[in-house]
Amino acid sequence: MRTLILALMAGAGVTYATRLYTDQKLQQVTAKSQQVVGQASVGGPFELTDQDGKPFSNKDLLGEFALLYFGFTHCPDICPDELEKVAEAINTVEKWTGVPVQLVFISVDPQRDTPALIKSYVKEFHPRMIGLTGSLDKIKAVSKSYRVYYNKTGESDTDYLVDHSIIHYLISPEGEFVTFFGKNADAPTIAKQISQHVADWQAEHPGYHKGRDMKAMVAAGAAAAEPKAAATVGK
Fold first, then answer.
1. Residue 31 phi/psi, 5° resolution?
2. In contact, 146 and 42? CB cutoff 8 Å
3. Order of all β-strands in the sheet with 66-71
4. DSSP secondary structure letter of residue 6
5. CA-based nearest residue to 164, from 79, 225, 226, 104
6. What digits encode the pLDDT tens for the residues 3-37?
7. pTM as predicted
8. Which phi and psi angles does 28 have, rounded to 5°?
């Protein structure tokens, strides 16, 4: 077992460098796409299985913003840290705007991540988080459409890690890619940016959560958060 762990750690070191390069390229391509055509060619239709074993597609996310993350339940630290971070962020968004951004966890380890396992996993992070899995081919397809890098490290069929991109994808109520957040983005930053996207969306779609002034609500929420952030930094 010690030999296996050391081998996995060594492999993870190599693939981490590859993942870092891939994530940086994704950021460059996305930024360039947004500048040139205003819409990055990231994302697309998918048909997977949710944590209750029921069919779930991209169409089930229409109507509200969603934040997608690709990971695996056996991930020792990065996935839990990232999911806790975005759970905190979307709670802040909901507090500021009243909009329930949908968190979605998509497994890149369908060999082990059954619906039942994913169900017990996602509920540890947020009560509304949806967990998705599927066949190897379907996971490959959705990962490719979102330009997600992942690679199994280790020779064992049961005891292995999966190196993968650390990216959160924000999807609009119409199912279009909006932007993404990397590992370096903290919860307050993510909350502020998503809230601004929510306000901008309402400005362009007056019927969205009609009766609420999202722009004013976001400004008020951000202003109220500033003293707390300053106090935290000062400690």
1. -60, -45
2. yes
3. 55-57, 47-50, 130-133, 102-107, 66-71, 167-171, 177-182
4. H
5. 79
6. 323 333 333 443 444 454 445 555 554 444 343 33
7. 0.82
8. -65, -45
